Amino acid sequence: MTKFTIFLILIVVVAFLLVVVIMVQNPKGGGLSSSFGGGGTQQLGGVKKTGDFLDKSTWFLATLLIALILLSNITIDGAGGVSDSKALDTDETTTQPVTPPATTNESTDGAE
Questions:
Q1: What is the average per-residue pLDDT within 32-52?
Q2: CA distance linking residue 2 with residue 68, whole number of Å
Q3: Under a CB-based contact definition with an 8 Å cutoff, are residues 68 and 77 in contact?
């Protein structure tokens, strides 16, 4: 298993977790904390802070996803090498030199 494959698996897992965390949040501010009945007061041992946890986890997962994507770019095979175009490469094995036709010393008119 290559490093790139490991990064790819981690990226998929983090992206899935990020989708789950975003889907749990309510766009109007209620979210998971409103389902426990904690509107403006702190109930059930800190349900009011559930929105803060979801916000922080969203930012953390998004930052982690970006970092994993940037790090995976380093591990791609050939990323550190020269990225010149092969179309512009003048390799001797692909180009053959042009040779002039062979000349003979024989006379074509036979007048010698």
A1: 57
A2: 15
A3: no
